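Kindly draft a polypeptide, keeping tokens residue-aligned:

***
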Amino acid sequence: MVRLIAIISITIAVIALNNELYPLGWWLVIQPISVMIVGFGLFALGICGAGDVKLMTALSIIIYPAFWWQTLLLITAIGGVLATGYLFYGWLTDDLAKIRKNGLPYGVAISLGVFSSVMMSPLITEFYLT
């Protein structure tokens, strides 16, 4: 498994440095590695799940660097709405203990937040819509 991750990482690095369409070059390599390090630290503290860390690492490749704070804010806001909906559902069905035990699938919030941020970023408006 480690060998597969290393091969994928080296492939991404080669594509990032040789791809003329992606103007950020090395940022495409540094950004996912930074997200993975911080994410696994949060996982070790029990704040988030390993699947969320892997998803955010994979999606960090398409996030424009200037839009990171906006992306995190969108993920947090969507996650708050999702958590409120889950708690309300648990309250209506009198199954709140089960909802709290199972946790919240935060992958939905991560995916929607990243998608929204990417749609507003210059990578879409400058390179794909012109």
In short: Residues 100 and 116 are 28 Å apart (CA to CA). Residues 2-128 form one domain. The radius of gyration is 17 Å. The longest helix spans residues 68-92.
